[in-house]
Amino acid sequence: MTLFDLIFLIAALALLVATASAMYLAVRRRWPAVSRLGWRTVAATVAYFAVLIAVSLTARPRLLPVGTSQCADEWCIAVTGATRETAIDTAKARGVFEIVTVEVTNQGRGRRQREADVYAYLVDADGRRFQVSPAGESALERSGAAGDSLTGFVDAGSRRESHLVFDVPPDDSGLALIKAAHRWTPARVVIGDPQSLLHPPTLMQVRTR
User: What share of the chain is helix, strand, coil (3-state, %, to 5)?
Assistant: First the structure.
């Protein structure tokens, strides 16, 4: 747990206490006290989000070298390599297929884990975004080389390997993988978290061989 995680937990607890206190004061019809508490809570919330946005806007993108893990608690992901192919099975790329090897690790000791909402995409040096190629992924599955699902369960203390396929321009360089989530997560309001509001995401370097 980081310092900012602790600050978020304290802020969330303080908000719950303030809400409960306001409800108690309202039942007692102590409206001036409810108003004062409400304004203080609003001011504290605005201050928290001001700090969150300021930290996000001043943060620099972090680039993780190949093989370096990015973790969410005990669930970790790392790019371990990449290859390029003009075709996979019967599927032909519009540019080239970038096949990124991703290792998912469960560093815990208690139970199997998964990140059911996670997905990944590529960005290049110009900021262009590339989603997973459905045609390339299907072809890789038919060939038996797709590996495990990125969102599958990983046993405690073990790891799994997945291969993600992207269709990129043949001359593209400076590619990096970004882990993201489809839905809202509490990390969106944790100061300094790579998934927090307006924060630049963590980049995982993709080195093609």
Answer: 30, 30, 35
Q: Which of 92, 90, 115, 111 is nearest to 102 (CA)?
A: 115
Residue 80: what pLDDT?
95
Measured CA to CA, the distance from residue 20 to residue 8 in angstroms comes to 18
**Residue 81: what residue type?**
G
CB-count burial class (<10 Å; 0-12, 13-18, 19+) for 165: buried
SS3 94: strand
Strand order in the sheet with 70-72: 70-72, 75-88, 91-106, 159-168
d(CA 86, CA 127): 23
Neighbouring C-alpha atoms within 13 Å toward the C-beta of 92: 1
Blockwise average pLDDT, block size 10, the chain, 209 residues:
84 94 93 94 95 94 93 91 93 95 90 89 93 95 89 90 94 89 87 91 87
Angle at 117 between CA 113 and CA 122, to 5 degrees: 110
Q: What global pTM score does this model have? A: 0.83
What are the residues facing 178 on neighbouring strands?
121
pLDDT at 209: 63
pLDDT at 206: 94
